Amino acid sequence: MEQNNQVDKEFSLNIKNTEDEGDKKIMWFSFVVLILALVAIAVFVFKYNEVYKIKEEKINTEKESDDLIGIEKRLPEKMKGKIYLTLAPKNDSDDSLGIFSYNLKKENLEEFLLNKGEQLRGGEVVQFTIGDYISLSNGESIFINSVENSNINSWTTLLEDGISNFKSETVWSNGGWKLFYNIIKDKSLDLNTPNNWQIYSLNTTDIEREGKYLLTLQQ
């Protein structure tokens, strides 16, 4: 009888140990499955983001391409004419600025007006019935003349008030009846600070031309 009880106890212990080991195996198996599931989810999210980014980049590229095509359709098939730019010559030791013309058809840049040591700014062209006229400033005075004439000594002086200030950025109104320009009254001020500049207008049809103050730039 005692021997049978002993056998039953040992059998019960074996069953319990087996159940414990089974529980541990199930727990470890569940843990491994959970880790694998998390890894799978992470890989899926990563791949999804990659695919989404590729699609988004493709859409943006196609949109940019469509925008460029739209711009090209609006542009003339053959560009012609000239634009005038204020540029500094390369490796110039005299800090010169001049007006250069860019031929849209030939796609080449040419010197239009450059005086050594002078800083000429401007280049906006207006169409009059007698031809195309360009305006520029040497800092002290404002000049206009036909684009066919690049000799500033024979240009028309539109404004020469004798005031020691700095005039720049001449811009025509529609029709060319007025000319707008910037003034910085104190030459010691920083040219790159908007608040130091004022905008004036000039009536090109007046016999006695005088600049009219419009506003002060605000940063």
Global geometry: elongated
Q: What's the story with the biggest beta sheet?
A: 4 strands, antiparallel
**Helix fraction bin:** 25-40%
Rg over CA atoms: 40 Å
End-to-end gap: 106 Å
Average pLDDT over all residues: 77
Give the number of helices: 1
Q: Give the second-level CATH assignment, the architecture of the largest domain.
A: 6 Propeller
The name of the CATH topology of the largest domain is Neuraminidase
CATH class membership of the largest domain: Mainly Beta
Q: State the CATH superfamily name of the largest domain.
A: TolB, C-terminal domain
Strand order of the largest sheet: 4-5-6-7
Question: Would you write up a description of this structure?
Answer:
- The protein has one helix at 2-74; strands at residues 82-87, 98-103, 108-113, 121-128, 131-137, 142-146, 156-159, 166-172, 178-184, 198-203, 212-216.
- With 219 residues, the chain is an alpha+beta fold.
- It has two domains: 1-75; 82-216, Neuraminidase, CATH 2.120.10.
- The strands form three sheets. A four-stranded antiparallel sheet has the order 4-5-6-7, with no helix packed on it. It has a four-stranded antiparallel sheet with strand order 8-9-10-11, with no helix packed on it. A three-stranded antiparallel sheet has the order 1-2-3, with no helix packed on it.
- Strand 4 (121-128) and strand 5 form a beta hairpin.
- The mean pLDDT is 77.
